[in-house]
Thermonuclease family protein
Amino acid sequence: MTKYVNLNKRKLPLWMMLVLMVISIAMGWAGCDGQRDPSLAGMEEAYVKRVVDGDTFITGNDERVRLIGIDAPESVKPDTLPEPYGPEASAYVKELLEGKTVYMDVDVSDTDRFDRLLRYIYLADGTFVNEKLLEEGYARHVVFPPDVAFEARLRDAENRAKSDGEGLWGLTD
């Protein structure tokens, strides 16, 4: 004889209720709530169609986006050899962003002199990409006022990478 649980006048087998509870608990532990980080609400969503290099990508709408506060070593500059750690930075950003939806936040300036959108970039889980690239040594911190909202945070990320010898900071001559 199967036992039933009464939920709002619907009867479900007890075993089904237990399975649903276990799945719900497991999803909560894994952080799989199907939602994006709430701090991303109100940010501009963009699909990353192609990564150009370690600090620039192209959206699904063919807009060029430049990450604020970072400068990755060059890897695709015409008529020049790639800079040390440039190809690694480009490959890492490609793996991190290409084919994914990101969330973009503007500071003061909308575009730079090359008409690229200037943005802070976040992944759906809330990862601050600009900071992550600095922390892992894939870029250097640069400041172009008036876009300085996260200047101290980004500088600190670069300093941690330097002291730990991460990425380009671990290169020897």
Remarks:
- The chain has a mean pLDDT of 87.
